[in-house]
Amino acid sequence: MAYQVTIGIPVYNAENYIRQAIESALAQTFESIEFLILDDCGTDSSMSIVCEYQQSHSRGKDIRILSPSYNMGVGVARNEIVKETQGRYLFFMDADDTIDPNTIELLYEHAIRYQADIVFGSYERIIQMGENETKELFQYPFMFFQKEDEFPNYVYRKYAGIQATTWNFLIDIDILRNNHICYSPINYWEDFSLMIDLPTYITRAVLLPNITYHYYCRVGSASNDQSRDYISKEEINKVMDAIIRVKANSDRTKGHAYFPKRMFKVMMTFFYMICSVLEKGENIHPSFSNRELRDLMKYPLSMMEILKMKTWRAKNLMLSLLGFLPPMLSVFLMKRMGKMKGLIE
Questions:
Q1: Is the separation of the CB atoms in 236 and 277 below 8 Å?
Q2: Sign of CA pseudo-dihedral 69, 73, 74, 77
Q3: What does the DSSP 8-state code read for residue 167?
Q4: Segments of the chain scoring below 50 in pLDDT
Q5: 223 near 276, Cβ under 8 Å?
Q6: 281 touches 287 (CB < 8 A)
Q7: How far apart are CA 232 and CA 236, in angstroms?
Q8: Is the peptide bond before 209 cis (omega within 30 degrees of 0)?
Q9: Phi-psi sector, 141: left (phi>0), alpha (psi -120 to 50), beta
Q10: Which of 209, 212, 213, 180 is nearest to 197 (CA)?
Q11: Please, what is the angle between helix 259-279 and helix 233-248, to 10°?
Q12: What is the β-pairing status of strands 231-232 and 284-285?
């Protein structure tokens, strides 16, 4: 059966939340949906719950389960879903979040109307700490991009131009497949490096102010795992390596008007990650040396190339200096800057 849309959901130990996620997906008003669930070999009853819906729900025939023989991790799991998707468009959601009943219908309608490569909905972040719950709205203005480089130029205009996550947008599957766009094989920030580069492959894009996704940030979840006493340096290095690959891929975007902005965003990503390392330094084992942190700020461009930038020259020069200074001085300045931005206490 040919589907217009695939909803892809990687599942790993989500038994407390998978039921509400699956029900919100199955409640979609849009009919032509494949529900592609990847069983990432968890140890709880998550997949038993999925199988229950597959057997008893009226849309159960549209649920397809991928069952690898080992735990892939969320990055590789997403790549497998991209490979196996049968829909013309792909929509990712996490196994502990929910979507509104008209989410797919709304995004698909705009994808067809504007012949868009990608359509973003706005979302609600729900922070749950024990019995306390707070909500934050992340809302886009309505915007339609159709000129070459117009979308990436908008995205890179500031550090947080669009969301850094790969849920809550509908994307033409050919954009991912034809350009060999892959997620990093890591379990944290697996989509962050992809979202830095993805805009450079997009020409026609739509941003919608409609809240279509509800992102739950819970104590103990991967996205809210901020208070561990022991953090492996190897784990952080894997995330750093994903961003290093983005840095190394800079040559592909040279010559585009958005290039200076993209470079600034890439290097600011390193800066924010370094600030996180400095903030949590006592919990990271083994620790990072000043030289290791300084070297992360080295630009993949010469000083002459930066000086030739027509825009954002001063901002890029400022960051590039952090990669040239002696390690101790570079880290000292990053600590000061991090404190000024409220990233380090």
A1: yes
A2: negative
A3: B
A4: 222-226
A5: no
A6: yes
A7: 7
A8: no
A9: beta
A10: 180
A11: 170
A12: parallel
Provide the residue count of the chain: 345
Q: What are phi and psi of 264, to 5 degrees?
A: -65, -40
User: CA 53 → CA 6, 56, 59, 230, 337, distances in Å?
Assistant: 17, 5, 8, 38, 51
Q: Classify 296 in phi/psi space as left (phi over 0), alpha (psi -120 to 50) or beta.
A: alpha
Token pair recorded at residue 217: 């940030």
Sign of the torsion formed by the C-alpha atoms of 224, 229, 230 and 236 = positive
Q: How far apart are CA 47 and CA 45, in angstroms?
A: 6
Residue-wise pLDDT for 4-16, tens only, equals 999 999 999 999 9
- Unique residue bearing structure tokens 């390596």: 241
Contact residues for 283 (Cβ-Cβ < 8 A; gap 6+): 228, 229, 230, 231
Q: In which residue are the tokens 């968890």 written?
A: 42
The two three-digit tokens of residue 4, written as one number: 């217009």
Contact by Cβ (8 Å): 49, 123? no
Yes or no: say if 85 and 137 are a contact pair by the CB < 8 Å rule.
no
- The CA-atom distances, in angstroms, between 184 and each of 80, 88, 293 are 12, 23, 21
Cβ(124)–Cβ(133) under 8 Å?
Answer: no
User: Which has the closest alpha carbon to 28: 6, 51, 2?
Assistant: 6
Place of tokens 């490569």: 117
Q: Kindly give the pairing relationship between strand 169-172 and strand 33-39.
A: unpaired
